[in-house]
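User: Before I run my own analysis I want an independent prediction to cross-check against. Here's the chain; please return only the structure tokens and, at the end, one sentence I can use as a sanity check.
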Amino acid sequence: MRKFLPWIIGVGGLLVLLLIFGLWYISVKNGAITVDQAVKKEWGNVETSYQRRNDLIGNLVKTVKGAADFEKSTLEAVVSARAKATSITVDPTNITPEQFEQFNQAQSGVSSALSRLLVTVEKYPDLKANQNFLKLQDELASTENQILMARTRFNESVEKYNNYVLKMPRSLILSDYKEKAVFKAVAGAEKPVEVDFDFNSEKK
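Assistant: Structure tokens:
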């Protein structure tokens, strides 16, 4: 019996190691699912915030259309930018830098066109006093804050995800979990919107 004792101890030790590895493997896989689901949840919040802005812009455009002689090109720019932004979707299960670049550029185009529209309104006293317009303007400002918060939380969730799946030794068994992209400021986003109106020109 003694001659088999080392074998028994060795086999027992191996089984313990396999059990420990198996529990660690399950823990790592479950952890990856948790951080991946967190990213999807935060992306849903981002999409909801942008959808809220799109809805408000639609109502804003309808309100502004009622103003006499309002710049048609300004309204068209907002409508066009909004349509382009809504046509671009991002798959949260495979968020690539290229997808984010397109999405970010499109949403930046909406922000830029919307800023120009709101600045143009300064030329229209009736619009500035329109209670419906003022309410929509306040709601848009609130929504922009929600978008910023949603983007920040999304970036934080992606950072946790990337750290989890890319660090050794977890990365050895999580090769099917790819690095996800985060929101970055669009080039030139730090610059104020330039609006050039010729107030001295006569309407024809």
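Sanity check: Helices lie at 5-65, 72-86, 97-120, 125-128, 131-166.
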